[in-house]
Design a protein that fits this description.
Number of strands: 30
Number of helices: 19
Radius of gyration: 33 Å
Distance between the termini: 74 Å
Structural class: alpha+beta
Helix content: 25-40%
Strand content: 15-25%
Strand order of the largest sheet: 19-18-22-20-21
Length: about 800
Amino acid sequence: MTVTAVLPTAVFAAEPQNDLTYAEMFKSLYDDVITNGRTNGYFSAPKNNYSFALPYHAIEEFCVVDVDYGHETTSNDAAYLVQVAALHDVLVKQGRISGSADNIVKSWKTLEEMIPCSANYAYGSDKIKGILWKPEEQKSDSYPDGENPNDYPIPTTAFGSYGKNPLYNILKSAYGGDSGYYITHRLIDTDDWYGFGEGSSAYINLFQRGVNESCYETVPQPCLEEFKYGNETCGIRGIIIGNSVAPQYIFNNDPSADFRAIQAIHFANRWNIDTGTRSALAGKMGDQLRNVMFDRFYKQIGCQSLNSASESKAKSQHYLISGETQLYGPLNEWVWGSQTSGLDIHQADQNPLAAYALLTDSNMSDAMQASMAADDYKESLKRQIELYLWLQSCEGPIAGGCTNSYKGKYGEYNSSDPTFYDMVYVEHPNHKDPGSNQSISSQAQTVQRLAELYYYIKTTEDKSGVTPGYMSLEEALDTLLGRWFDWIEENTHFDWEAPDGTSYTYCIPTEINWTGQPDTWSGVYNPNGNKNLHASIADYGQDVGSVSAICNALTFKDESDAVMAYGTMALLYPEATSSPMQFNVDFVTEPYYPDPATQTVNGGETASIPIIPDDCAGKHIVGWHADDDLSNLFDFKTPITRDTMFCAVWQDINNTIVSSSDKTFITYYGDDINLTMNGIVNGSVACKVTLNGVNIPCKQSRTVFTVAAKAIPAGETAEVEYTVTSGARTNVYKYNVKSVYKCGDIDGSGTVDNSDAELYLRILSGKFDFTEDQLRCADVNYDGKRDILDPIAIIK
């Protein structure tokens, strides 16, 4: 099942200009694919009322992608369900669509059917519950990968030294009382098409034989090897590991799916959706996913030998997200266990947004019970961002990845091969038929996560404390996104004919060719590096999933990028408006000044404070109240998320200081400023006036203090401090005085005369633009406009 990204919540949807808003469009798709998914052919038969049914990978049955049969379910399909359910619940809570806000809870229950030790309905799940933590250690043979499927089974004479998982006992100490690992398996035969499940859904495996095994070449096999199928002494699994097969289970975890689900829970937490216990479960999942941060057989990073010994956690951990982790174990009383991490590191498998969430979202981080989890994710976040910085080409796209096992055999690196923390560069990690970093989808999902993380820390604050490449996290993300977005915007075309003659209403690059290599990573980002790493466009197309993910990413970056995103979304969804959701912002300034014009503000952006003269019939505005709270002044840095009305808070202009703290009084630039302390009967009075820490002279006559004309420049605010001493008692009063132009004083001379009218006319003729201070004093006749009537009013 492919769930198209709709839009980030910061800019959900637009008010209806056509038939549907984007929120309503989302609801329509959601109801079609999920709410009514079983009826419409997207879901399998439901098992209970507490979860969704398992989603099919595709409504069609014939597939040549990650699966070979459309009615199988991948863990990423289930994770997408959690992600889209989270967005649904947020929209419901905000009143944008109708429905119940419990779908994320139901979707997580569906995800648990992909977790072998937590499933209730998959065939054989009851046979392994409770046995995964029994071994004293997880130990596995080190074997080389074959280049092609016909290289299998790998002869045992080619095996190297044993690998031993240094994280196993750390996790076992924390979670040994559970039924087993809380991570998903990659693939379920949902309707038992192959028959391995004896009528129930069944865990199956496909890709097992090297980097060149394509979907057409895979041999489907059950995860529970009970010798029921294939050879009677080695089952089907014998084609991979030969005749030395015991009855066993073998589960493959795709960490990109689990991190996607964690990302969705964090999203729900940010929008205050009640996830129940799911946040804690997501934290547990993240804790146990740390196994993917190691060399495949737990050898030292940079070892370059299949016979290298298994190493400690410190020496075998690279902290990045590898493509898988595998769990093996017995189906009899013989207690043993094996585990491996992933072979290669692919940039598209990284998820720094999930790493940031596990590090900073206490709903999840507090649930990670095993030791060193926070430290691991902090280093992982740093290295994932550094990996992107290392792999970004001159043009902008991000290259493949790296490995600790050169050519799948722990071969020696070539002296010219670049490295990243002692791991060697790989153009297409994990798979070469087709190349794993060839499709634009690898770029789209990467940049979407980076853009969402960038938006999150930009609008809140970075709580991670990481410095990738000796940059702040915000600087690193801005660097990556800026170059990538420049590339995609330059190569997105509308009403365009491609070099091969194909005409498109719109298109994006869909396939990328790679040449050259990155520089060796030094630990410090070099903005002028990677001169020999290049990405060229091999083909164009209209891959809807990638287009939508890219649009999603663009809306997170900034307003100019969002313009292109919404234009493209209008082509994807012509029945919905292509504008972001907009809100009306009104200002009430009557009776002292005409109400300013209504502002139209995109959701998630900020309103502008209207320019009002500083003197309106002896009054000035000291702040604004929002219409729903008349007790606090509104902070205009706050994003607008609904229609809003602001009421001006007026105050009399008075050059006489009164005994009231925390107020700023307005005076006119060019006039002498009289500061009077009233109510002093006995005692002495002293006054100090400072501007930016520098004293301003003032003359005293009794309790009146006079500051010379123009001593406080227009727009500047001076601090006034009165000290009143009466006997043994001393009182100190502090106030501010702001100097502004008089209404009509366009030239700032301190007087209003014909020279102001002349300058006004020159500005209106287009020779100059109003400065901000001039704008404040330019509405001479208080009609809410700045036009020819104002210089006429000055002359009169």
